Amino acid sequence: MLRSRLPDLAHQEIWAYLIVHHAISALTAKASAAADLDPDRISFTRALRLIRRTATGTADIPPSGLG
Length: 67
Fold this sequence. Notes:
By secondary structure, the protein is mainly α. 60% of the residues lie in helices and 0% in strands. The chain contains 2 helices and no strands. The longest helix is centred in the first third of the chain and has 28 residues, at 7-34.
């Protein structure tokens, strides 16, 4: 659901979501290459939750990592 009421702001919000999705995908691809894993084995949802916790300063990386 978009929060924006005006068409221009909705357009900007959609682009922001696309950019964030691309950034998370790039980070998981880089992490999978560093760990010698298949990128499909890393959960996008778990990566998103980890990034959210890290961005808010409450990161708690589980022992199993992102896999």
